[in-house]
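yo, CRP-like protein Clp is done. seq:
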Amino acid sequence: MNTNVVLDLAKLRRRCAQCSLHQLCLPAGIGHDDLDQLDAIVRRRRPLTRSERLYRIGDPMNALYVAREGSFKTVAINSDGEEQIIGFHLPGELMGLDALGSGRHRCEAEALGPTQVCEVPIESLEEVIHAIPGLSAQILRVIGRSVARDQDHLEMLGRRQAQERIAMFLHGLSERFRVLGHPSAEFSLPMSREDIARFLGLVIETVSRGFTRLQDEGVIKVRGRQLRILDPRQLETMALGSPDAPREQVCPRSA
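structure:
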């Protein structure tokens, strides 16, 4: 009797193809038992509605999170009680890394709309990392991309021209959709214009004028939250400068 187990690839892709760890599981082709072991520790949380918090400032770090559906923004609160948007997380991107250093969250993760979230308990993840070769390296790559996004945010805020900040934001968002396997030239913005303005350190009127100008110049087409990039090369030039021009490297300030 043939006891070989036939993998249901379609089921696996529905389950984790858009997760930030999928580069380990599907392309590398880990074994059936290993994949089941990884999937077994993932908890499917109840759905969250718009404005609900996944975790709050000061909460202990019990897990890492990945949005299967929907997006989040991460918000820090200063000493005056004012909120500052410090990041956005698309479906498939890892959340909760802010607590790696202290063991407690330094920001809040707020749902931008209806979401479905996978939760990876820390204590279980440590066990599986030792059991599955290559998983730790993939997690380090995911953490590295998160650090790179933080550096990109610093660079955006350092740009003097509002139009450059907006171009950098849209170009970076497009690249993130591409890495996650989503269409990168046409997508729906999960965040509002007000959220974008707060993230870029601008006022909402400036962001609206910036979108209109990019549309008038034939770089993008936007209707509500639906955005299409008509001239990717021009958007990249506006965001990053000429390919031959040296880019300024922005590094986070030492602690």
